Amino acid sequence: MVQISSDIIRGYNDTMILNILMKGPSYGYQISKEIKTISDEKYVIKETTLYSAFTRIEKNGYIESFVANPDPEGNGKKRTYYRITEAGLEYYKSKCEEWELTKEVVEKFIEENPDSLTLDDN
Amino acid sequence: MVQISSDIIRGYNDTMILNILMKGPSYGYQISKEIKTISDEKYVIKETTLYSAFTRIEKNGYIESFVANPDPEGNGKKRTYYRITEAGLEYYKSKCEEWELTKEVVEKFIEENPDSLTLDDN
DNA sequence: ATATTTACTTTGTCAGACATAGTACGACAG
DNA sequence: CTGTCGTACTATGTCTGACAAAGTAAATAT
Question: Which end of chain A is more exposed for a tag (fewer CB within 10 A), N or C?
Fold first, then answer.
């Protein structure tokens, strides 16, 4: 099974989180579920990765947090919700551009059909 | 200017090096030049990143080193050359597969035309 | 003669991912 | 009404790859 290493995804967890928050405020557990769903179960973010990302992203001013009840009547346990900021949106946009560039560069070193490769002449 | 962050490239430096070594043995300075050329000057690997990558990749058994003169007559300063191994080729192949998967996943969270995005409804 | 390029090595720092563990509330089953 | 499961986190510490800073030294260009 091919797995996504934490090294290649590194630095893009923030981008994924921001992408989800662009659709509206959300909180830890829900975001992790969404990442799993959106990625077709191909990527599951670790809890500690997610929550430490929140701290970092908020420090950077890309998200804001607020505590609220799950339903308007005030039932259920309170959660910490996050909302993307203007700066966060700008950061997200720059990450999208960076991604296009990265893809271009990395693909110069990647073979799309690597199975056929051998080492004969080396 | 859009720049490639060390976080997104992390873990793919090894792959780039292996890709270059697939064409035949090479050494540090030349590899760094090639990475720059192949990437159209878009990515320049840092010296320390490169040389520490050699140590790691060799430890993993993906490359082998040998010291040789730059020309057959024995002139010039000796260099440490690297040669990819069978295990290295396999690793490279797996990284290519991983890349395809990663791309698929990341792109679910990336907007190709991010300029038009706003935050109205949030 | 010396500045630049080539070809490294050494040391130490930092950030992001993640393992491990623990807390605590609410829902629901038996 | 008790125990288990799912939800919703926090705290602490470790590891790895990238990289900054600095130094060495031979070869080559000026």
Answer: N
